[in-house]
Specification:
Blueprint: H1 3-29, H2 40-57, H3 67-75, H4 84-105, H5 107-112, H6 120-123, H7 132-152, E1 157-158, E2 164-165, H8 173-187, H9 197-209, H10 225-243
Antiparallel strand pairs: 1-2
Helix pairs in contact: 1-2, 1-4, 2-8, 3-4, 3-7, 3-10, 4-9, 7-8, 7-10, 9-10
Length: 246
């Protein structure tokens, strides 16, 4: 697959992921929406199935839609390192594009929001208790679970007499949606579980440049945590994959 094709599918998949994921947060946070105040579980479900939708669209490239997944897959030896930059570029552009489309969808609600300085959380994550070391640990653990499942979950196999033996991965992209959902409900409380640098940094860049009335800071001081943490978590998951017997 050539670089342009990789870029296109990863961009489209990640843009869909971020549009739907940030969209469910906007629907919950902003007033005068039908989903206003529906809560954290509502947001988790939305993000889980945003991953399902984005990954399904990006199927031709292996549905990474996440630099941490790309990094882990490359360390595991399942893709060429030369392809990593184009995957990540597509994911980052998609993250920015998806956030811009979310803003366009909720433009009137953004204009009406009584606390416009507090709208960064619609687009990017932030810790409930700011401690960079432990915030980093949280992101590493959450991403480790995600990428470990992607690398280790068994696929469907052909059994005796043609009867299939279904592994977890037989659920396809619906399976990863459930994994993201449980990471959110179980591990997402401290930092908002970015577990994906493109999902956090792309929308953060979009927030910085979008003409949102009265918006606050993009919080660049924290922005490295949801980038470094997921990359470390993805790398550790790949090392586990390589260490385990086949």
């Amino acid at each position: 697959m050539n670089a342009g094709t990789i870029f296109l599918w990863e961009m489209l998949g990640t843009a869909t992921l971020v549009l739907l994921g940030t969209g469910v947060v906007a629907n919950n946070v902003l007033r005068k929406t039908l989903g206003s105040g529906t809560g954290f579980l509502f947001v988790n479900i939305g993000w889980g199935f945003a991953v399902f939708t984005g990954a399904s669209i990006a199927h031709p490239t292996g549905a990474h839609i996440n630099p941490a997944v790309t990094f882990g897959v490359a360390i595991a030896g399942d893709m060429a390192w030369a392809d990593v930059p184009i995957y990540v570029l597509g994911q980052m552009v998609g993250g920015i594009l998806g956030a811009v489309l979310c803003w366009a969808t909720y433009k009137l609600q953004f204009d009406d929001h009584p606390e416009p300085a507090n709208t960064l959380g619609i687009f990017s994550t932030a810790p409930q208790i700011r401690n960079y070391t432990w915030n980093l640990v949280t992101e590493i653990i959450g991403t480790f679970v995600l990428v470990s499942w992607i690398l280790l979950s068994p696929a469907a196999e052909q059994g005796e007499n043609g009867v299939p033996i279904f592994g977890n991965a037989a659920l396809g992209y619906a399976g990863v949606a459930f994994v993201v959902l449980v990471i959110g409900t179980s591990l997402g409380g401290p930092t908002g579980y970015a577990i994906n640098p493109a999902r956090d940094l792309g929308p953060r860049i979009a927030y910085a440049i979008l003409p949102i009335r009265g918006k606050g800071s993009a919080d660049w001081g924290y922005s490295w945590v949801p980038v470094v943490g997921p990359l470390v978590g993805g790398g550790l998951a790949a090392l586990l994959y390589l260490a385990l017997p086949v």
